[in-house]
Amino acid sequence: MLKVGLTGGIGSGKSLVAELFSLLGVPVLHADDTAKYLMEHDARLRQEISRVFGEEAYQNGRLNRPFLASMVFGNEEKLRQLNGLVHPATIAYSNAWAQKQQAPYVLKEAAIFFESGSDKEMDKMIGVYAPYSLRLQRAMQRDNAGEEAIKARMDKQMNEEEKMSRCDHIIRNDGTLSVIEQVLALDKLLRG
Ligand code: ADP
Protein backbone atom coordinates (compact mmCIF):
# COMPACT_ATOMS: atom_id res chain seq x y z
CA MET A 1 0.00 0.00 0.00
CA LEU A 2 1.17 3.47 -0.92
CA LYS A 3 1.57 6.01 1.90
CA VAL A 4 0.99 9.55 0.71
CA GLY A 5 1.67 12.72 2.70
CA LEU A 6 -0.34 15.89 2.22
CA THR A 7 1.09 19.19 3.37
CA GLY A 8 0.91 22.95 2.88
CA GLY A 9 1.14 26.10 4.93
CA ILE A 10 -1.62 27.48 7.16
CA GLY A 11 -4.64 28.41 5.06
CA SER A 12 -3.35 26.64 1.94
CA GLY A 13 -6.46 24.47 1.94
CA LYS A 14 -4.94 21.13 2.94
CA SER A 15 -7.86 20.23 5.25
CA LEU A 16 -10.26 20.96 2.41
CA VAL A 17 -8.20 18.88 -0.03
CA ALA A 18 -7.92 16.04 2.51
CA GLU A 19 -11.72 16.09 2.79
CA LEU A 20 -12.04 15.70 -0.99
CA PHE A 21 -9.76 12.65 -0.95
CA SER A 22 -11.76 11.29 1.95
CA LEU A 23 -14.96 11.71 -0.06
CA LEU A 24 -13.36 9.55 -2.77
CA GLY A 25 -12.97 6.77 -0.18
CA VAL A 26 -9.31 7.34 0.65
CA PRO A 27 -8.43 6.68 4.33
CA VAL A 28 -7.15 9.98 5.77
CA LEU A 29 -5.24 10.53 9.00
CA HIS A 30 -4.93 14.05 10.39
CA ALA A 31 -1.57 14.26 12.16
CA ASP A 32 -2.52 17.23 14.38
CA ASP A 33 -5.61 15.48 15.71
CA THR A 34 -3.66 12.25 16.15
CA ALA A 35 -0.92 14.03 18.12
CA LYS A 36 -3.52 15.70 20.35
CA TYR A 37 -5.26 12.37 20.89
CA LEU A 38 -2.03 10.58 21.79
CA MET A 39 -0.95 13.29 24.24
CA GLU A 40 -4.23 12.70 25.99
CA HIS A 41 -4.58 8.91 25.73
CA ASP A 42 -1.23 7.19 25.06
CA ALA A 43 0.03 5.95 28.43
CA ARG A 44 3.70 5.92 27.46
CA LEU A 45 3.62 9.38 25.90
CA ARG A 46 1.79 10.76 28.94
CA GLN A 47 4.48 9.30 31.17
CA GLU A 48 7.28 10.83 29.09
CA ILE A 49 5.60 14.25 29.00
CA SER A 50 5.13 14.16 32.79
CA ARG A 51 8.75 13.12 33.27
CA VAL A 52 10.11 16.00 31.16
CA PHE A 53 7.61 18.75 32.05
CA GLY A 54 6.50 17.68 35.50
CA GLU A 55 3.32 16.25 36.98
CA GLU A 56 1.55 19.55 36.31
CA ALA A 57 1.42 18.60 32.61
CA TYR A 58 -1.72 16.62 33.50
CA GLN A 59 -4.50 17.83 35.72
CA ASN A 60 -7.33 15.55 36.85
CA GLY A 61 -6.15 13.07 34.25
CA ARG A 62 -6.45 15.58 31.40
CA LEU A 63 -3.64 17.24 29.49
CA ASN A 64 -2.98 20.67 30.98
CA ARG A 65 -2.71 22.53 27.67
CA PRO A 66 -2.30 26.06 29.05
CA PHE A 67 0.56 24.87 31.28
CA LEU A 68 2.32 23.04 28.46
CA ALA A 69 1.81 25.98 26.10
CA SER A 70 3.35 28.33 28.66
CA MET A 71 6.35 25.98 29.02
CA VAL A 72 7.14 25.84 25.31
CA PHE A 73 6.12 29.39 24.33
CA GLY A 74 9.26 31.25 23.27
CA ASN A 75 11.46 28.38 24.49
CA GLU A 76 13.00 26.61 21.50
CA GLU A 77 14.67 23.93 23.61
CA LYS A 78 11.47 22.96 25.44
CA LEU A 79 9.50 22.97 22.19
CA ARG A 80 12.14 20.72 20.62
CA GLN A 81 11.87 18.38 23.60
CA LEU A 82 8.09 18.21 23.35
CA ASN A 83 8.20 17.57 19.61
CA GLY A 84 10.88 14.94 20.20
CA LEU A 85 8.35 13.03 22.28
CA VAL A 86 5.18 13.68 20.28
CA HIS A 87 6.51 13.21 16.72
CA PRO A 88 7.87 9.66 17.11
CA ALA A 89 4.66 8.60 18.87
CA THR A 90 2.56 10.08 16.05
CA ILE A 91 4.74 8.44 13.38
CA ALA A 92 4.48 5.03 15.07
CA TYR A 93 0.72 5.39 15.39
CA SER A 94 0.23 6.46 11.77
CA ASN A 95 2.40 3.61 10.46
CA ALA A 96 0.34 1.08 12.41
CA TRP A 97 -2.85 2.80 11.25
CA ALA A 98 -1.74 2.68 7.58
CA GLN A 99 -1.03 -1.04 7.80
CA LYS A 100 -4.57 -1.70 8.95
CA GLN A 101 -6.25 0.08 6.02
CA GLN A 102 -7.68 -1.74 3.03
CA ALA A 103 -7.14 0.72 0.19
CA PRO A 104 -4.79 1.29 -2.75
CA TYR A 105 -3.29 4.23 -0.87
CA VAL A 106 -3.70 6.20 2.34
CA LEU A 107 -3.23 9.90 3.03
CA LYS A 108 -1.61 11.54 6.05
CA GLU A 109 -2.33 15.24 6.37
CA ALA A 110 0.06 17.45 8.36
CA ALA A 111 1.29 21.04 8.40
CA ILE A 112 4.71 19.81 9.50
CA PHE A 113 6.38 17.08 7.46
CA PHE A 114 9.80 18.03 6.23
CA GLU A 115 10.55 19.84 9.50
CA SER A 116 10.07 16.65 11.53
CA GLY A 117 11.53 14.27 8.95
CA SER A 118 8.26 12.32 8.82
CA ASP A 119 8.16 12.75 5.02
CA LYS A 120 10.72 9.91 5.00
CA GLU A 121 7.93 7.58 6.15
CA MET A 122 5.89 8.46 3.04
CA ASP A 123 6.16 7.05 -0.49
CA LYS A 124 4.89 10.26 -2.09
CA MET A 125 4.30 13.83 -0.97
CA ILE A 126 1.53 16.16 -2.16
CA GLY A 127 1.78 19.90 -1.54
CA VAL A 128 -1.23 22.22 -1.50
CA TYR A 129 -0.18 25.60 -2.81
CA ALA A 130 -1.72 29.04 -2.35
CA PRO A 131 0.13 32.36 -2.22
CA TYR A 132 0.90 34.03 1.12
CA SER A 133 -1.71 36.79 0.87
CA LEU A 134 -4.51 34.36 0.05
CA ARG A 135 -3.49 31.97 2.84
CA LEU A 136 -3.42 34.87 5.28
CA GLN A 137 -6.87 36.03 4.21
CA ARG A 138 -8.37 32.51 4.38
CA ALA A 139 -6.85 31.67 7.76
CA MET A 140 -7.95 35.02 9.26
CA GLN A 141 -11.49 34.36 8.14
CA ARG A 142 -11.51 30.71 9.24
CA ASP A 143 -10.03 31.35 12.70
CA ASN A 144 -11.65 34.75 13.19
CA ALA A 145 -8.15 35.98 14.00
CA GLY A 146 -6.16 39.14 13.41
CA GLU A 147 -3.50 39.60 10.73
CA GLU A 148 -0.59 39.70 13.18
CA ALA A 149 -1.63 36.49 14.97
CA ILE A 150 -1.85 34.52 11.72
CA LYS A 151 1.34 36.06 10.32
CA ALA A 152 3.20 35.02 13.47
CA ARG A 153 2.09 31.41 12.93
CA MET A 154 2.85 31.52 9.21
CA ASP A 155 6.30 32.96 9.67
CA LYS A 156 7.28 30.11 11.99
CA GLN A 157 6.62 27.55 9.25
CA MET A 158 9.02 26.40 6.59
CA ASN A 159 9.19 28.65 3.53
CA GLU A 160 6.35 27.68 1.19
CA GLU A 161 8.45 27.57 -2.00
CA GLU A 162 10.96 25.24 -0.37
CA LYS A 163 8.15 23.03 0.95
CA MET A 164 6.52 22.78 -2.49
CA SER A 165 9.84 22.08 -4.23
CA ARG A 166 10.21 18.99 -2.06
CA CYS A 167 6.78 17.56 -2.99
CA ASP A 168 6.16 15.04 -5.79
CA HIS A 169 2.78 16.55 -6.73
CA ILE A 170 1.30 20.00 -6.27
CA ILE A 171 -2.35 20.94 -6.01
CA ARG A 172 -2.86 24.60 -6.83
CA ASN A 173 -5.50 26.14 -4.62
CA ASP A 174 -5.04 29.71 -5.78
CA GLY A 175 -8.16 30.01 -7.91
CA THR A 176 -6.37 29.33 -11.21
CA LEU A 177 -7.30 25.64 -11.56
CA SER A 178 -10.19 23.48 -10.40
CA VAL A 179 -9.16 21.82 -7.14
CA ILE A 180 -11.68 19.02 -7.67
CA GLU A 181 -10.28 18.20 -11.12
CA GLN A 182 -6.75 18.13 -9.72
CA VAL A 183 -7.77 15.82 -6.85
CA LEU A 184 -9.60 13.49 -9.26
CA ALA A 185 -6.57 13.31 -11.57
CA LEU A 186 -4.18 12.63 -8.70
CA ASP A 187 -6.49 10.03 -7.18
CA LYS A 188 -6.56 8.21 -10.52
CA LEU A 189 -2.77 8.31 -10.75
CA LEU A 190 -2.27 7.09 -7.16
CA ARG A 191 -4.70 4.21 -7.61
CA GLY A 192 -2.34 3.13 -10.42
P1 ADP B 1 -5.32 24.49 6.06
O1 ADP B 1 -5.86 23.17 6.58
O2 ADP B 1 -4.25 24.31 5.03
O3 ADP B 1 -4.90 25.44 7.14
P2 ADP B 1 -8.07 24.91 5.22
O4 ADP B 1 -8.36 23.73 4.38
O5 ADP B 1 -8.65 24.93 6.60
O6 ADP B 1 -6.50 25.21 5.28
O7 ADP B 1 -8.52 26.21 4.42
C1 ADP B 1 -8.48 27.49 5.04
C2 ADP B 1 -9.83 28.19 4.89
O8 ADP B 1 -9.97 28.58 3.53
C3 ADP B 1 -11.01 27.30 5.22
O9 ADP B 1 -12.01 28.08 5.83
C4 ADP B 1 -11.46 26.80 3.84
O10 ADP B 1 -12.81 26.48 3.82
C5 ADP B 1 -11.12 27.99 2.96
N1 ADP B 1 -10.75 27.59 1.59
C6 ADP B 1 -9.78 26.74 1.25
N2 ADP B 1 -9.69 26.63 -0.10
C7 ADP B 1 -10.65 27.43 -0.60
C8 ADP B 1 -11.08 27.75 -1.93
N3 ADP B 1 -10.51 27.23 -3.01
N4 ADP B 1 -12.10 28.63 -2.06
C9 ADP B 1 -12.68 29.16 -0.98
N5 ADP B 1 -12.34 28.92 0.29
C10 ADP B 1 -11.33 28.06 0.48
Shape: globular
CATH topology of the largest domain: Rossmann fold
User: If helices are DSSP runs of H or I spanning 4 or more residues, what is the number of helices?
Assistant: 9
Give the bound compounds.
Answer: adenosine-5'-diphosphate
| Class of secondary structure makeup | alpha/beta
The secondary-structure element order is: EHEHHEEHHEEHHHEH
Query: What's the architecture of the largest domain, going by CATH?
Result: 3-Layer(aba) Sandwich
Fold and architecture overview:
This protein is an alpha/beta fold. It is 55% helix and 15% strand. It has helices at residues 14-23, 31-41, 43-53, 65-72, 76-100, 132-143, 147-156, 160-165, 179-191; strands at 2-7, 28-30, 58-59, 62-63, 105-109, 124-129, 169-172. The strands form 2 sheets. A 5-stranded parallel beta sheet has the order 2-5-1-6-7, sandwiched between helices. A two-stranded antiparallel sheet has the order 3-4. Helix 3 (43-53) packs antiparallel against helix 5 and helix 6 (132-143) packs across helix 7. The protein is globular. The mean pLDDT is 96. Adenosine-5'-diphosphate is lined by residues 8, 10-16, 138-139, 142, 173, 179.
